[in-house]
Amino acid sequence: AQLLLQTANKDLSNYSITTHGQGLLDLDKATQPVGGLGISLTGRTGATTSISGSLSINGVDDSVISSLSSMSAIDDFDRDFKVDLTSMIKQNDNLMPLQSDYKKGDSWGAMLSNLDVKSLDGFIIGLENKEHFLIGYNKSIIDTSLELNLNYSKNQANPWVDISGVWGDVDSTSTIDSNLTWANDNFWIQGGVMATNTDLTAGLVSDINNLYSVYTTAGWEKDNWRIYTGTKPKLIKGDIEFNLPSNVDENGTMHYNKQKTRVKNNATGFIGGFWQQDVNGYSLITDGTVDSSGGHHTSITINKQF
Questions:
Q1: pLDDT of 235 strictly over 50
Q2: For the chain, what is the total number of helices (H) and then of strands (E)?
Q3: Cα-to-chain-centroid distance, residue 209
Q4: CA-based diameter of the chain, in Å?
Q5: What φ, ψ does residue 10 adopt, rounded to 5°?
Q6: What is the per-residue pLDDT for 1?
Q7: Range with the lowest mean pLDDT among 48-57, 101-110, 173-182?
Q8: SS3 for 227?
Q9: Prediction pTM value
Q10: Helix (H, G, I), strand (E, B) or coil at 58
Q11: Fewest beta carbons less than 10 Å away: which of 87, 105, 208, 219?
Q12: What integer pLDDT is reported at residue 294 of this predicted model?
């Protein structure tokens, strides 16, 4: 009754509530959503979240796309309507920024933290606050040309998945980076493995499993020159889980479809160089990097020597 009263047509000539009551019934309007549609993760009569935000990821399985194209959303009268949320998916191969001035022993875990990292007696640390920091350790392996680096970092974003609005929110990520560097005179080669754990406020994305990635880099340096090449971290394992409202049965019960899709990215290579020249108490520093996805970065810096 409340629905019919709220949707009744009162746009009548000489309309009077005394004469015409609550207006003429508008059955077409009554069958349309009242108020804004929202997504409920706690049943048909549960709290709803407005349909906003996005999911940035490289590819979603067809089964998930099919479910997202026919989702159950709820109006102000707890009625369900089908909505298509596939347009909210942003195809993004790599949210990871292009790094420049890559040096021997640099780890991607440290670079992604984007902190001013200091080293002392093998220990490395970078600190902004308790939610954004890095700690690690470098150790030369006796009787070899190898150096081991281990570090742990906590950051506020996931470099492969970004969610907002009805999809949820990434609260923080924790990454363990383990890498080995082999050096011979001016040449060096490095390989690393990263494990990234994500803490999130769940939405349609209910969980992001541990993401495992690998990377490699090689370089040559002499005097004031350095050239390098390598690959950005390539995902090898890890899933994202969805909790999708699929339908309401004849008893008014909301049902949910739980699905997974693998988080993946294309292999992205890069090449770069660095050159420094000291002249009359100043240092001229140039570096540039390009990658196989079309990203590039160049810079020229002049520093005064003290």
A1: yes
A2: 5, 21
A3: 13
A4: 100
A5: -105, 5
A6: 45
A7: 101-110
A8: strand
A9: 0.85
A10: coil
A11: 87
A12: 86
| Residue that has been written with the tokens 């407005």 in this structure | 50
Domain parsing of the chain, residue ranges: 108-268
Tokens matching residue 141: 């392996």
Strands of 123-224, DSSP E: 123-129, 132-140, 146-155, 162-163, 168-184, 187-202, 205-208, 211-222
| Identity of the residue numbered 112 | L
Strands 89-91 and 55-57, by their bridges, are parallel
Q: Which distant-in-sequence residues (6+ apart) come within 8 Å of 216 by Cβ?
A: 189, 190, 191, 192, 230, 231
Distance from C-alpha of 272 to C-alpha of 108, rounded to nearest angstrom? 16
| Residue length of the chain | 306
Q: N- to C-terminal Cα distance for the chain?
A: 82
- Facing residues of 234 across strands? 214
d(CA 89, CA 242): 13
What is the CB neighbour count within 10 angstroms for residue 119? 12
Say how far apart CA 9 and CA 13 lie, in whole Å.
Answer: 11
Output the average pLDDT for the chain. 88
